[in-house]
TrEMBL record, chains A, B:
Span of domain HTH tetR-type: 12-72
A Pfam family matched in the record: TetR_N
PANTHER family with a match to the protein in the record: ACREF/ENVCD OPERON REPRESSOR-RELATED (PTHR43479), ACREF_ENVCD OPERON REPRESSOR-RELATED (PTHR43479:SF11)
The protein's name in its UniProt record: TetR/AcrR family transcriptional regulator
DNA-binding region(s), chain positions: 35-54
Domain of life of the native organism: Bacteria
Alphabetized UniProt keyword annotations: DNA-binding, Transcription, Transcription regulation
Gene Ontology MF term list: DNA binding
The keyword Transcription is annotated on this UniProt entry: yes
Length: 209, 209
């Protein structure tokens, strides 16, 4: 950290550096234990200077959470592909890997104290809105029309993927590939349920499995 | 409330009364704004007596949350029926109606400050565990074997139902019946996805819908 201490940075770089240090620290401890003093120390700046960039501790924490959410959204950005199911698979593989690599950060944000803070929750909700919008944009490519049911199913599907991934990290009883398969297949399955396709009677087919 | 003030209650009744008053108050304001003084006033007991039943404000809040969760679980207890899909529909109708009737309480607990508290979160997780177990117990009746994938899908489904119901309450673009249909159909749909049934190729069927 000595090298960092001596570096002169312009304000935008300094701000980004402080947020980045905070985000890294988040992998090791919950947000509420990240103090402004620790970050100032690591960055080689005074506590006063840190408050020049962030008016309060909670504003700094919010900036860290926004940064983490943007990072996740960048990692899971859908690439253009001719096969919408391949696009979906690639997005979900990136999501599962991002959450795995950042498990402490991600799980502590979504299932920790931050989830009870109204401003933090707004960031998570906006992030989910972007994920839902991206997903809805892909649906016409697999022949599905956007209806209020389908929109609700997609919002629910985001929650499904989040919960399945976090549960899997806590007790990984299946492989990474199997988890990705489950999250990929669940989208058309839920979209079918949303347009009124009755899977019930077909379940008999599976008794031999 | 005057009638209540004068009533002599045995300790178990008094404890239940205090929790019940707290749970009712929860419909009007978030948990963190429920003060011990208000409850003591309404029950006609001294603040000191309230602390005789609950060692701290947070212990009192926790008792309120446990009470609400138990109430929801009671309302959504599956009744024995020959048709497992009818049982599922009746459970989900009860769930949607419970959440609708207790929308302030339920949404503020699951999506409010309480969701950031480790002990509260444990209560919510235990509640979801019970819902998942009840669901898993029904699955053999529709021909599904319990596998790690199916277990994960059921946990994710609980999150799906919770999120779809809360989103629907915020912006009800479909009817109560349509929401119940969606949550009912989503379970076999997700269970199918979990056993590796590929819904993708069948989506073409829906283009005419």
């Amino acid at each position: 950290m000595d090298a960092v201490k001596r570096t002169r940075l312009d304000p935008a770089q300094r701000r980004a550096q402080l947020i980045d240090l905070g985000a890294r620290m988040l992998a090791e401890r919950p947000l509420e234990q990240i103090s402004v003093e620790d970050i100032a120390d690591q960055a080689g700046v005074s506590r006063g200077l840190l408050f020049h960039y962030f008016a309060s501790k909670s504003e700094f924490h919010l900036a860290i959470v926004r940064h983490s959410s943007e990072q996740m959204l960048q990692r899971t950005e859908p690439s253009e592909s001719d096969d919408p199911m391949l696009t979906l698979r690639s997005v979900l593989a990136s999501y599962v890997d991002y959450v795995t690599e950042n498990r402490n950060t991600y799980v502590s944000l979504l299932r920790g104290t931050a989830s009870g803070d109204p401003q933090m929750r707004e960031v998570f909700e906006q992030t989910r809105d972007i994920m839902a919008k991206r997903t809805l944009d892909q649906l016409p490519k697999i022949g599905l029309t956007r209806t209020p049911q389908v929109e609700l199913a997609v919002r629910g599907w985001i929650a499904f993927v989040e919960e399945a991934t976090i549960s899997w990290l806590r007790a990984p009883a299946i492989t990474r590939e199997e988890l990705i398969d489950l999250t990929v297949q669940s989208l058309p399955a839920l979209a079918l349920a949303a347009v009124g396709f009755d899977a019930g009677p077909d379940l008999g087919l599976l008794q031999s499995n």
